[in-house]
Specification:
With 422 residues, the protein is of the alpha/beta class. It has 3 domains: 2-119, Methylthiotransferase, N-terminal domain (Rossmann fold, 3-Layer(aba) Sandwich), CATH 3.40.50.12160; 121-355, tm_1862 like domain (pyruvate-formate lyase- activating enzyme); 361-420, Beta Barrel (OB fold (Dihydrolipoamide Acetyltransferase, E2P)), CATH 2.40.50.140. Helices cover 34% and strands 22% of the residues. The chain contains 12 helices and 18 strands. It has a 5-stranded parallel sheet, with helices on both faces. Helix 3 links the parallel strand 4 and strand 5. The longest helix is centred in the last third of the chain and has 24 residues, at 332-355. The protein is globular, with a radius of gyration of 22 Å. The N and C termini lie far apart (49 Å). The mean pLDDT is 96.
């Protein structure tokens, strides 16, 4: 039996997809959906555009007339509605049913399948890279966000289990581990005997590990201890992915964020003072209910003054059962105009920040070759297709997974360019 899987959404959902594929390790996995006997769509249900993409993908897959299984966040959130509106789908599996997925699939397909566990994951990333999920769920209850409704409350994995998985991945050839969670900085607060710093210090002792990266750091939980840990480490990269969402104190309060503009200034100043070459990436949201032009101008001025290395933006998506849903909504055209305005400004900032890195020496990992350049990533680039890449000239033939030193020679708004050093 051939199994095909389409994974939508974030890296955390990708880990679920890899664990689902791991259940089928005795079957043949195919990247060609048209050849598959069973097609699985692992959906995203975070915002309206993601929900639309999920539905469109399901409808496309149904045209193949194969056995179809739909899983993931959209199913967790709209299970009953989907069963009624898409009776052509053979099986829907909610996230809450993942612990029973072996039993469910064995009965549905009459196939021998394995347990749904991290140790059985079938990686879909390049051989040198793996995501390491350290928790699930979220306790932040931001006014715009449906994640707690989908994934539940925050639950840390046991430190020993995470370490064992990390060790196993590195022993299989993984050179970069990317720690992910809905809120990475909260790790261990529900366990009482560990925290993100203790976990990082343990993981960095693993031999042959070249890069460790943390994504999704909640601003108010980025401690002095965490900054020092990253500063003093040889393999934990100085890359701070800190979504701020806004810089107006009025909007931050309405969003139910725990930060203020003043605290954000202090945090970013502290990071840059301690680690001058640190990359700081953020996410901002425009068009949240009650956002006035004065709030948007305040956000723009903040972004202009802070000069983030990388910034992603999006317009507010009205989500059922969140606090923001019943608030007065901002005109969508106004929201789009604000997003375009801030992204145009950031494009110029990103170019300036990139050019400031000319002359730096970056340790990079090779991922591809295109035209005249090898494509790689250094500490400055996360592997989530958001940041861009490091394009490398080399007189020497390189292969994927090679680690090389690169002198930065140029930049554009999203990428760096460099030459491999001998």
């Amino acid at each position: 039996m051939k199994i095909g899987l389409i994974s939508l959404g974030c890296a955390k959902n990708q880990v679920d997809s890899e664990m689902i594929l791991g259940v089928f390790k005795k079957s043949e996995i195919t990247n060609n959906i048209s050849e598959a006997d069973v097609i699985i769509v692992n959906t995203c249900g975070f915002i309206e555009s993601a929900k639309k993409e999920s539905i469109d993908t399901i409808l496309e897959v149904l045209d193949y007339k194969k056995k179809t299984i739909v899983t993931g966040c959209l199913v967790e959130r709209y299970y009953d509605d989907l069963k009624k509106s898409l009776p052509e789908v053979d099986l829907f599996i909610r996230i809450k049913d993942y612990p029973r997925i072996k039993e469910i699939l064995k009965g549905f397909l009459n196939e021998n399948v394995k347990d749904f566990k991290e140790k059985n994951r079938m990686l879909t990333t390049p051989k040198h890279l793996a995501y390491l999920r350290i928790s699930d769920g979220c306790n932040n209850r931001c006014s715009y966000c449906a994640i707690p409704l989908i994934r539940g409350s925050y639950r840390s994995r046991l430190e020993d289990d995470i370490y064992d998985e990390a060790l196993s991945l590195v022993n299989k050839g993984v050179k970069e581990l990317v720690l992910i969670s809905q809120d990475t900085t909260r790790y261990g607060t529900d366990l009482g005997n560990t925290n993100i710093v203790k976990l990082l210090k343990r993981i960095e002792t693993i031999p042959n590990l070249e890069f460790v990266r943390c994504l999704y750091l909640y601003p108010s939980d980025v401690t002095d201890e965490l900054i020092e840990c990253i500063k003093n480490s040889k393999i934990i990269v100085p890359y701070f992915d800190i979504p701020i969402q806004h810089a107006s104190n009025k909007m931050l309060k309405l969003m139910n964020r725990r930060d203020t503009k003043e605290k954000l200034y202090d945090l970013i100043g502290k990071i840059r003072k301690s680690i001058p070459n640190a990359v700081i990436r953020t996410t901002v949201m425009v068009g949240f209910p009650y956002e006035e032009e004065s709030d948007f101008i305040e956000l723009k001025e903040f972004v202009k003054e802070i000069r983030f290395d990388k910034l992603g933006g999006f317009t507010y998506s009205r989500e059922e059962d969140t606090k923001g849903y019943s608030m007065p909504q901002v005109n969508k055209n106004v929201s789009k105009r604000r997003l375009n305005e801030i992204m145009r400004m950031q494009e110029k900032i990103s170019l300036e920040k990139g050019l400031e890195r000319v002359g730096e020496i970056h340790k990079a990992i090779i991922e591809d070759f295109e035209g005249y350049y090898y494509i790689g990533r250094s500490f400055a680039f996360a592997p989530d297709d958001v940041d861009g890449y490091l394009f490398i000239e080399s007189d020497e033939k390189l292969k994927n997974g090679d680690i090389v030193n690169v002198e930065i020679t140029d930049a554009d708004s999203y990428n760096l360019f460099g030459k491999k050093l001998d």
